[in-house]
């Protein structure tokens, strides 16, 4: 049998990110983005090797954008498309692994939507459009939360009245599971260890950020919670704040819940602290030029990250290594070095030459000699989604 092709789709409310993955190749055959869907400026961009192209699709919705994408995908895949893998943000307690999309799984994803009101409905729009357009293809949902369904109850419960969990699902779910799963497995492979018999702390640092404790291929704790707001400082999200902050702002400033939610999700994090940008690259440049807000934002980001990693170590019986991934984790030697500087009690120390070398997709070990392993491992969520889709094709 020739190597199979899987189309991976990640639908937002007005965008579709996609990648065509061939099981025998590390690079993508095709990748791209349809954006500003539903507006007169809707546009489809794609890249095949070094060649970039785009098509304006004014007013296109998800279905129209996918129908424009289909012939491009079929051409690049030589007419051999074997399945579609959809990224779905929230699988609640219903999904602890990827699932074939059928009436029952679609019903479950709809029922879970109140837990992810911004994300799951957008994911569903893409799934429904793709199922109408490609009815003969196997389609699979891969959930950001599924990997963390192995958390023990003492790690996933909040100390709030039991009925809120039993009746309303108020608990910690965790996100970025596809990335944590992929990089912890790669870390084991790169270190000559068995994924099923090794222990990792993982820091996924992109626009959204989370840490995870992975033992023997299972997630045992993670920093995001009921929603992706909990935990680390992120691009525009605050991460942990005093839970009384909502009440305080409502009383003192008369702010509505919507305004407080928007502030914590969109105006906080690196952007809020620096007053400048949510983008780590820009902040590093501004810090070089002496911008105090940029310096503070990076310092808070790294200190809080180190605290979270130290907390995650409680979940593990042994540590085979700490892994950095995501746009910041894969590229910022400064963030890695500052964070590890706060983790001396775990015995961690970097080789700064190796640290500086691991940028722009270069993986490797960056610890100083005779210190616990620290790795940079580029994530590849699209590849993991394609692998999960292929596994379900085989069943
Ligand atoms: P992601 O969401 O994984 O694409 O990550 C986005 C984040 O990675 C943004 O904060 C970027 O500024 C950051 N990033 C990308 N490249 C670099 C770099 N060379 N140095 C520092 N941060 C970077």
Describe the protein's architecture and organization.
By secondary structure, the chain is an alpha/beta fold. It folds into two domains: 5-143, ATPase, nucleotide binding domain (Nucleotidyltransferase, domain 5, 2-Layer Sandwich); 192-381, ATPase, nucleotide binding domain (Nucleotidyltransferase, domain 5). It is built from 15 helices and 14 strands. An eight-stranded mixed beta sheet has the order 5-4-3-2-1-6-8-7, with helices on both faces. It has a six-stranded mixed beta sheet with strand order 11-10-9-12-14-13, sandwiched between helices. Helix 1 (62-76) crosses helix 3 (120-133), helix 10 packs across helix 11 (292-312) and helix 11 (292-312) packs across helix 13. The mean pLDDT is 96. Bound molecules: adenosine monophosphate. The site of adenosine monophosphate has 12 residues, from helix 10 and helix 12.
């Amino acid at each position: 049998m020739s190597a199979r092709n899987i189309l991976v789709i990640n639908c937002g409310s007005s965008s579709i990110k996609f990648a065509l993955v061939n099981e025998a190749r590390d690079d993508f055959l095709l990748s791209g983005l349809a954006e500003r869907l539903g507006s007169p400026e809707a546009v489809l961009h794609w890249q095949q090797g070094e060649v970039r192209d785009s098509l304006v699709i004014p007013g296109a919705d998800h279905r129209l954008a996918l129908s424009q994408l289909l012939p491009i995908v079929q051409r690049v895949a030589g007419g051999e498309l074997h399945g579609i893998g959809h990224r779905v943000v929230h699988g609640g307690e219903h999904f602890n692994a990827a699932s074939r999309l059928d009436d029952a799984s679609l019903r479950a994803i709809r029922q879970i939507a109140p837990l992810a009101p911004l994300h799951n409905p957008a994911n569903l729009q893409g799934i429904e459009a793709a199922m109408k357009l490609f009815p003969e293809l196997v389609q699979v949902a891969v959930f950001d939360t599924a990997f963390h369904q192995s958390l023990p109850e003492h790690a996933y419960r909040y100390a709030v009245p039991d009925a809120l969990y039993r009746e309303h699902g108020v608990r910690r779910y965790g996100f970025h599971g596809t990335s944590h799963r992929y990089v912890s497995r790669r870390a084991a492979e790169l270190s000559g260890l068995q994924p099923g018999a090794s222990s990792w702390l993982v820091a996924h640092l992109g626009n959204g950020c989370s840490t995870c404790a992975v033992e023997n291929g299972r997630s045992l704790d993670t920093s995001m919670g009921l929603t992706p707001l909990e935990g680390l400082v992120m691009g525009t999200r605050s991460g942990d704040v005093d839970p009384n902050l909502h009440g305080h702002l409502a009383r003192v400033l008369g702010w509505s819940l919507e305004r407080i939610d928007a502030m914590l999700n969109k105006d906080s994090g690196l952007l809020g602290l620096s007053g400048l940008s949510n983008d780590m690259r820009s902040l590093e440049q501004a810090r070089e030029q002496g911008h105090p807000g940029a310096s503070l934002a990076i310092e808070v980001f790294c200190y809080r990250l180190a605290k979270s990693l130290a907390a995650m170590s409680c979940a593990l019986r042994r540590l085979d290594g700490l892994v950095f991934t995501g746009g910041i984790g894969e590229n910022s030697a400064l963030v890695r070095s500052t964070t590890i500087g706060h983790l001396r009690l775990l015995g961690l120390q970097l080789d700064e030459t190796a640290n500086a070398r691991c940028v722009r997709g270069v993986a490797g070990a960056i610890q100083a000699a005779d210190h616990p392993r620290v790795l940079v491992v580029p994530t590849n969520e699209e590849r993991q989604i394609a692998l999960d889709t292929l596994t379900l094709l085989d069943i």
